[in-house]
Structures are given as structure tokens and as C-alpha cells.
Amino acid sequence: QVQLVESGGGLVQAGNSLRLSCAASLRTFSTYSMGWFRQAPGKEREFVAGVSPSGGFTDYVESVKGRFTISRDNAKNTVYLQMNSMKPDETAKYYCAAALTSFNTVLSTIKRYSYWGQGTQVTVSS
Predict the structure, then answer these.
(1) Residue 94, class by beta-carbon neighbours within 10 Å (0-12 exposed, 13-18 middle, 19+ buried)?
(2) pLDDT tens digit string along 69-96?
(3) Closest CA to 45 of 80, 118, 4, 95
């Protein structure tokens, strides 16, 4: 049974940082493209950041470029999201997701992701 377990969420003041982690019970973790998504109340789930299976390629939604960094440790089956200079409108539930891919590429489309975590709440206070 595949499990993705997020951790590291919480309450943070605007301008401060938070680091999310996602531990995956995927047998072949290094063959999965990994992504972070978020969903605020009343809004659709959106792509935040993605990393290729090797970790060599990353992609971000425009609004977080330069502030967020996605990374992965294939030896630990874990993906991370370092979030700096956070903003109140980034308050949302953050989800980790995995997509099996034959190519060393980043996937940003929600429907490409097969496995999802339960999410971790991030609240940014002003």
C-alpha cells in the first residue's frame, strides 16, 4: 500500500520560513516525479512545485519562484519543500503527490499524479 505522509506544516508569521517533508512508501521512489500542491478553502488545488525523478529538474508556479525550493533525497524516499518569505495568501493545505514516469521530467498537471498524501495545513499570519 502506497503512503505519502506530509509533515512540517503549522502556523508561521508572514515573511518567515517553513519546511515541509513528505515521506513516501514507494518501492521505486526514484522513478517517480514528485510534486507539491496546495488548496485554500473555496479554491481549486494548484501546482506549487515539482521535481524530476533524479532531482535534477525542478519547476515552480510563478508566484513562488525565488522563495520556495523543492528537493528530494532518493536514499530516504523523501521530498522537501522549503518555503521562505511566506505570505498570508499562501495559507492552504499542502499536499505531496507522486507520478510514475518513464522520463526524467517534472510534471505539473494534477491528473498525472497517481498518489497523494493527506495534506498538511500551513497557516501564514499577517
Answers:
(1) buried
(2) 999 999 999 999 999 999 999 999 999 9
(3) 95
